[in-house]
Amino acid sequence: MEGTSNGGMLYHEVQESKLCAVHCVNTVLQGPFFSEFDLAALASDLDTKERQMMLQGTAAASAAGGFLSEESHNVSLGGDFSIQVLQKALEVWDLQVIPFDCPVAEPAQIDPELENAFICHLHDHWFCIRKVNGEWYNFDSLYAAPQHFSKFYLSAYLDSLKGSGWSIFLVRGNFPKECPISSSEVSGGYGQWLSPEDAERITKSCNLTQAPPQRKNVAQQHPERLLSLDETDMQMLSDMEDEDLKAAIAASLMDSSPATASAEASTPETENKDSQEKTA
Fold it and tell me: Is 159 a catalytic residue?
């Protein structure tokens, strides 16, 4: 049996701006290996190569015009990166990114426990689910700490993601075994090393203060129930997870100001007053 990596510690990064792709790559690798500047450099290199390919041949010249007018197809102004950038970053460590619905990934569709890491994406949000020292964790940067998954919950959670429209990718290869644990090297100040016990304590604390305990991670708290659920129960569980996922996405992407929301909320009241005055 292999020894524990990183002294049994878990590496987690908390959401900073829209850098979830950076957090995703680093938690796959379990260490602060990449910064947003590293991924931006990879994106720039990909853009250059793509433009060169589009310019080859006179037949493609007109089609290339619209393509070349774009600043980048691999990184947005808000800091979101394409799957190609994540692939290039992980290739540096000899890791391969494979779509979950690809034929070569069929064994993982049957038994995801056989894998070591999954990358999940919807809209502008990326996160990874990773096996560390034989245990599965959700390293979503929207969470304060990694959330432990049983292997039964892992399968149900992936099914819920697929049903909600998420793109899922496998990560295969020889993952780094060790990363120097140094606070000065923790990525951008939003990375942290946690013991599994600390991660569990933080997760429980957040569940008590931020989410209704009767709805939060039902399957995670009672994994044995997944074996006896009928189709109706599984659908209810899936719906509950979908709501949590949608809430997480909304929290990640929402950038409207409180003043705007307040103005919109006050509009019906103003219209009611005008209506009353006209009636009077």
Answer: no
Q: Above 60 in pLDDT, residue 256?
A: no
Q: Is 125 a catalytic residue?
A: yes
Tell me how far apart the alpha carbons of residues 8 and 3 are, in angstroms, rounded to a whole number.
Answer: 9
DSSP annotation of 81 reads: B
Catalytic residue among 23, 80, 120, 140: 140
Give the integer Cα–Cα distance in Å for 130 and 79.
23
Identify any residues that bridge with 149 across adjacent strands, giving them in sequence order.
136
> What is the mean predicted confidence (pLDDT) over 123-147?
96
Alpha carbon distance 29, 174 (integer Å): 10
**From 121, 125, 128, 179, active-site residue:** 125
Per-residue pLDDT at 185: 52
- Active-site annotation holder among 20, 24, 120, 179: 20
Closest CA to 169 of 50, 64, 79, 87: 87
What's the rounded mean pLDDT across residues 221-241? 45
DSSP β-ladder status, 167-173 and 191-194: unpaired
Q: Are 101 and 87 in contact (CB under 8 A)?
A: no
Examine the pLDDT at 155 and tell me if it is beyond 70: yes
Average pLDDT of span 202-225: 56
Residue 20 is among the residues annotated as catalytic for this protein: yes
Computed over its alpha carbons, how large is the radius of gyration of the chain?
22
**Concatenated DSSP letters for 98-113?**
EETTSGGGHHHHH-GG
**Residues in the chain, total:** 280
